[in-house]
Backbone:
């Protein structure tokens, strides 16, 4: 059966409290009873001793007799306490006997005690027994005393009443503790479960596509606040991903639609005979389709780069050597541009293929946006924490308002659009994603008309 979190926590707390309270009640009950029994045993041993002492002191050596009135008092008092006493003088003649005095009362007291003990404490397994004591005074035997009582010990009616009251009290304390603990448990369970229940509700909202919802992390419990923060972060990420996905889809549609419409219109015109299908026109269409498939390939590369599955094959890479390799790829340029790599050797842990791609993209941009006879160089610098390389050109540059946007997908500055250089605005997005995958950063500086500088930092640790 599936229960709510609050019920589950409340039940657990209630069970734990029930167990603890029962254990405490049982143990304290047991301890109190054992202690009380010890006390009664001691008291009864002392009581017999006291009766013997009291009676010995009432012997008058001059008269060689006893104070009959006092003996009677002691005897009756002992009887009310559950002791039947019989006093004999030194010759063995009866001086005082409780049974002689009140036979019925003696029998009743003994049978009441025996019945009570058999009823409440059958484990004691006692019986009525007589104990004989020799009475002495100044070393001389003056008589003997027989004390008849229930042994090995017995509880009086008052003792039983006391024990019963104790039981009731313990039970009342137990029940009160149980009620308080269960109430406190319910409140606590509510406080613990509320944020979790809220988080579950929010998770459901998020899975239903409502990404705007947020949880206030204010429970004061570290784990629960952490849960709220994680949920909010999840919602943030999903919201971002969702907007990226939407934007990417519309961007892709937009980027593909224009060239495709163009090619379709040209082909249609040729099919319908409006245009003659000259090799030059067909060549134009062919180049346009190549450009479109290039764009699709770029998109694919970007998707791979940005996906979490990007696995870097890291080795120690010398940035200077890599920069020289990158430059060598542009040796047979139709454009007249001075291209060189210079600086220090810098070893960084990186995936050489991916880093080469970063350099190639940056260099190809620099070359693309630098006019004939311009200069492009890649410089490498080594520091304790990182390897840094910068691609600089003295080309057309980038306007200040474009600078923060050039790493966005499909973003092209107005100038580059009007120059029809053929880029789709994906190159720098790929560069950014690859540098981030290395834990590095990229920075762009530029002055329109004077040139641009892209600086990439790859950390060593
Ligand atoms: P593209 O394929 O259009 O070059 P990128 O993502 O590589 O796409 O670059 C985005 C835009 O940034 C370019 O269209 C261009 O406007 C600008 N840009 C990038 N590099 C340079 C550069 N070295 N000089 C001037 N503008 C640049």
Residues:
């Amino acid at each position: 059966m599936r229960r709510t979190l609050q019920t589950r926590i409340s039940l657990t707390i209630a069970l734990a409290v029930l167990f603890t309270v029962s254990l405490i009640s049982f143990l304290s009950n047991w301890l109190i009873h054992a202690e009380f029994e010890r006390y009664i045993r001691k008291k009864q041993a002392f009581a017999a001793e006291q009766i013997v002492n009291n009676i010995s002191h009432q012997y008058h050596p001059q008269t060689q007799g006893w104070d009959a009135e006092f003996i009677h008092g002691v005897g009756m008092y002992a009887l009310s306490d559950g002791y039947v006493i019989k006093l004999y003088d030194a010759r063995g003649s009866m001086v005082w006997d409780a049974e002689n005095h009140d036979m019925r009362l003696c029998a009743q007291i003994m049978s009441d005690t025996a019945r009570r003990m058999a009823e409440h404490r059958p484990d004691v397994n006692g019986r009525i027994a007589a104990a004989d004591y020799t009475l002495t005074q100044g070393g001389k035997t003056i008589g003997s005393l027989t004390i008849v009582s229930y042994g090995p010990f017995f509880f009086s009616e008052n003792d039983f009443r006391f024990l019963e009251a104790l039981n009731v009290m313990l039970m009342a304390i137990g029940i009160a503790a149980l009620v308080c603990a269960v109430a406190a448990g319910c409140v606590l369970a509510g406080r613990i479960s509320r944020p979790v229940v809220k988080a579950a509700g929010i998770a459901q909202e998020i899975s239903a596509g409502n990404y705007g919802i947020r949880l206030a992390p204010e429970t004061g419990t570290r784990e629960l606040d952490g849960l709220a923060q994680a949920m909010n972060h999840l919602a943030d990420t999903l919201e971002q991903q969702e907007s990226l996905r939407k934007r990417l889809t519309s961007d892709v549609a937009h980027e593909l639609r224009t060239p495709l419409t163009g090619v379709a219109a040209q082909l249609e015109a040729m099919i319908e005979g409006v245009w003659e299908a000259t090799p030059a026109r067909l060549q134009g269409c062919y180049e346009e389709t190549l450009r479109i498939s290039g764009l699709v390939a770029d998109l694919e590369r970007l998707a791979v780069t940005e996906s979490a599955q990007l696995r870097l094959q890291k080795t120690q890479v010398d940035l200077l050597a890599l920069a020289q390799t990158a430059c060598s790829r542009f040796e047979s340029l139709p454009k007249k541009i001075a291209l060189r790599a210079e600086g220090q050797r810098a070893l960084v842990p990186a995936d050489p293929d991916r880093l080469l791609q970063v350099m190639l993209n940056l260099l190809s941009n620099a070359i693309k946006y630098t006019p004939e006879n311009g200069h492009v160089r890649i410089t490498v610098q080594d520091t304790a924490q990182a390897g840094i390389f910068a691609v600089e050109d003295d080309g057309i540059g980038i306007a200040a308002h474009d600078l923060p946007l050039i790493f966005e997908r499909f973003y092209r500055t107005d100038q580059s659009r009007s120059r029809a250089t053929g880029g789709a605005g994906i190159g720098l997005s790929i560069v950014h994603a690859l540098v981030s995958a290395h834990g590095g950063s990229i920075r762009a500086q530029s002055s329109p008309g004077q040139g641009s500088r892209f600086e990439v930092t790859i950390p060593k640790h």
